[in-house]
Amino acid sequence: MKALSHESTALYDVPGPKTERRHKFYGLLSTLVLLALVGWLLYLLFDTDQFTETKWMPFEYTGIQELLLKGLGNTLKAFAISAVLALALGGLLAVGRLSDHRPVRWVATLLVEFFRAMPVLVMIFFVFVALKVQPLPALVTGLTLYNGSVLAEVFRSGVNSVERGQREAAYALGMRKTQVMGHVLVPQAVRAMLPAIISQLVVALKDTSLGYLITYEEFLHAGKLIASNLDYDLPFIPVVLVISPIYIGMCMLLSWFAQWVSRRQRRNPKTEAAEVAPAEPGTLLPGPQ
């Protein structure tokens, strides 16, 4: 009987030849559907004359380029401020949720659940309209409260995902809780938390586009101003074709940065396993031989 070339794993059975052929067929069918969808979209764009020189010439003007660059700079500024504050707030709330003091833990839990359930746009409008705050602080406040509460759960879950024996061993050595968190749990949890942290920062970057609703002059607001002043049909499509790849590129840069940090962390000698010297004959303990 011919030996099987595939081995089973603990989680699932490796697919056989028929299943592999079926998966390849599904993959090919999905690819064809996606290509057909892209082809249909391109047909609509060409059919409505979206690639004519008249519709793309305005982007060669210096004023439009400066407006887009200014909007992009404002977007990055709002994202940078809100990202730093959200990480700080998330760490603070996570510490509160992991606290041994019940009142502190209850307050932190209430804040996390409230701000995580509240829509970002509602918080931004409340700060902007009710508290009469300027557009940039209002946008940053809404993004910080929402993303900080989500990151708090990411941090808490990451710390709790570390094997319980690590915590118990650290306490057995006489370490205090702050030392256990800073030297044992958090360094091991960072690697598990990093993908979720970057994903939430990507959400924060995309949510900066909500600033145009409160007249903050960010990237999408600049595109809206440009499209509203063009005098041809469907002016928003060329603007979207210019703005969308830049948003996608910034999100891909964040993902690349996360992968780079993860690779550096794996190469860090502090996180690598130490080599154990082979056992050699040594001095015997005193006693009867």
Q: What is the chain-wise order of helices and strands?
A: HHHHHHHHHH
Q: What are the low-pLDDT stretches, counting only 5+ consecutive residues below 50? A: 1-9, 271-277
Tell me, briefly, the overall form: globular
Q: Bin the strand percentage.
A: under 5%
Radius of gyration: 27 Å
Binned, the helix content reads over 70%
Count of alpha and pi helical runs? 10
Question: What is the strand tally?
Answer: 0
User: What is the terminal-to-terminal distance?
Assistant: 57 Å
Protein model, in words:
This protein is mainly alpha-helical. The protein contains ten helices and no strands. Helix 4 packs across helix 6 (135-160). The longest helix has 36 residues, at 62-97.
Short description:
Helix content is 71%, strand content 0%. It has 289 residues and is an all-alpha fold.
Topology:
Layout: H1 17-47, H2 53-56, H3 62-97, H4 102-117, H5 120-130, H6 135-160, H7 164-172, H8 177-207, H9 219-228, H10 236-267
Helix pairs in contact: 3-4, 3-6, 3-9, 4-6, 5-6, 6-8, 7-8, 8-10, 9-10
Annotation keywords:
mainly alpha; disordered N terminus; globular; 289 residues; 0% strand; 10 helices
